[in-house]
Specification:
The complex is a heterodimer.
Chain A (H helix, E strand, L loop, with lengths): L2 H26 L7 H19 L10 H16 L4 H22 L1
Helix pairs in contact in A: 3-4
Chain B lengths: L3 E2 L2 H28 L4 H11 L2 H12 L4 H11 L1 H11 L8 H9 L3 H8 L4 E2 L1 H25 L5 H6 L3 H16 L1 H19 L1 H4 L3 H19 L17
Parallel strand pairs in B: 1-2
Helix pairs in contact in B: 1-2, 1-3, 1-8, 2-8, 3-4, 4-13, 5-7, 10-11, 11-13
The chains are: A mainly alpha, B mainly alpha.
Chain lengths: 107, 245
């Protein structure tokens, strides 16, 4: 199989699966959910999913642990003061970059 | 939910901060994708057809290596399973003018951040608001991937790797504010994080695989708190994210 065709097949599978996972519940669930337990579960899910994805993965996302810890701390503080998504993301990256540059100078 | 927000311009305005955030995150994805051996065009196509940060980061290496199609499909199901839950939640939020066809494209655009902002609205959201909200993030995601893939080779390694935390920082920005206002939310997040650490640092549990670990930990923590701290009637059952950017 030519490389481009093979890529197209992989892309199709990936996109198809990702789309179905999002589309089916949105199309199938039409009525308002009244059940308090299900409502509560749905309330907690986004926060727990995002937390699990972030910790501990963020600590392995940079060249050194210390820069990741500093980036994490900066993001936590700014998020606590309810800065916007972009401010928090770019400041976290900036803190990691600054730490890595300092480490480079010390070595 | 009598109130409905269906203003296209308001949607556009709410979407711009997400778009800017996506530019930096997809820029990081573009860099990684090219490093994994994908071409610039391939990286951009993946972004235009998937619109899922974590799923793409996990899927790109499998595509680059032409690995198992089953592994690719399973990884996407598990990592993106949270979107099913978000779609169920979003289904409760859509206004009366949202028809079947609209649900088809709204589902495609249901990312963590678009979902969070849509849910943050006081009442129901209409299709015009959702279109405005989704438009700039979609193109920002594709454009950022293109720029990252092209610039990946030019940028110094140290800068490129710093951008790898952008995605995680954005998640932190979504999770922390509601934890200030609701103690059960904070406890649920702390439990989820503790479980996640256990699964990641105990080798036998780590072998379960990243995608499955995310689902197990998040579902366990959410189930427990739905049991012990159900949300009160009248309490908002959606994300309360305020956009300050």
């Amino acid at each position: 199989m030519p490389e481009a065709l093979k890529f197209a097949l992989y892309l199709l599978i990936m996109a198809g699966v990702t789309y179905l996972v999002r589309m089916l519940p949105l199309v199938l669930v039409k009525r308002k959910i009244e059940n308090r337990f299900i409502k509560s579960f749905l309330y907690y899910v986004p926060y727990s999913v995002l937390s699990v994805m972030t910790v501990p993965a963020i600590f392995a996302a940079t060249p050194s642990l210390i820069s990741a810890v500093i980036g994490f701390a900066v993001a936590l503080v700014l998020a606590y003061f309810e800065r916007g998504l972009m401010t928090v993301a770019l400041s976290g990256c900036g803190a990691v970059l600054a730490t890595e540059l300092i480490l480079l100078l010390i070595k | 939910m009598e109130l409905q927000n269906d203003n296209f311009k308001k949607g556009l305005r709410d979407g711009i901060p997400i778009c800017l955030g996506y530019l930096s995150v997809s820029f990081a994805f573009g860099i990684s994708a090219v490093n994994m051996g994908l071409s610039v065009l391939e990286a951009v196509l993946i972004s235009m057809f998937n619109l899922t940060s974590a799923g793409q980061l996990a899927g790109a290496p499998i595509i680059a290596a032409f690995g198992s199609l089953w592994e690719l499909a399973a990884t996407q199901v598990v990592i993106n399973l949270r979107y099913s839950l978000m779609s169920v939640s979003l289904s409760q939020k859509l206004g009366k003018n949202v028809r079947f066809f609209d649900r088809l494209w709204i589902a495609f655009c249901n990312t963590d951040e678009i979902f969070a902002v849509a849910s943050g609205n006081k009442g129901a959201v209409g299709k015009r608001y959702m279109l405005g909200l989704s438009l700039t993030p979609y193109f920002g995601w594709a454009l950022g991937t293109l720029l990252g893939a092209v610039a990946g080779d030019i940028l110094p390694e140290i800068v490129a790797s710093s951008l790898g935390v952008a995605l995680y920082c954005m998640f932190i920005a979504i999770v922390v504010p509601p934890c200030k206002k609701s103690r059960p939310t904070l406890m649920c997040v702390l439990l989820a994080v503790a479980l996640s650490c256990v699964f990641n640092y105990v080798p036998a549990l780590k072998a379960i695989g990243d995608g499955f670990i995310i689902i197990i930990c998040a579902v366990a923590a959410s189930l427990l708190f739905a049991l012990v701290a159900p949300v009160k009637d009248g309490m908002r059952t959606d994300l309360e994210v305020e956009q300050n950017a």
